[in-house]
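ARCHIVE CARD
Drawer: 12
Card no.: 0347
Subject: one protein chain, sequence and derived structure
Cross-reference: see card 0346
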Amino acid sequence: MQIELIEKEIKALISEPGVQASALLDGGSGLIWCSCGDGTVEPPNWEAAVDYWRLHHRMREHFVSLGELGAAVMYHRKAVLAVFPCDRKQDLLVACIARHSGVDWSGVQRRVRALGAWMQDQ
């Protein structure tokens, strides 16, 4: 895989309106592949963001009627933390910190899905 291209795509996420920080994470280990921010927020412990995803994943049986989990979104007082599946085959996740409003979540999801598709083709 070309890490430079992946880093470029993760950095491009903060060009989405309202997105302040982003990271590519290993869903199994919590390892940070790459991360970036716009300087307006202190990035969280990205590894801990993976635990939010794991919690939703463990509880998935209770929500089967809602379909496959597309994102785990936590609305904190100061910002929103959203964790998206990027490459399910390699268990890679993308996490973003964003403002409470003005975020094009559909645009973020499109970028994450495109990155995941590219990674699967490599």
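Annotation on reverse: The helical segments are 3-13, 46-58, 105-121. The chain has one domain: 3-121.
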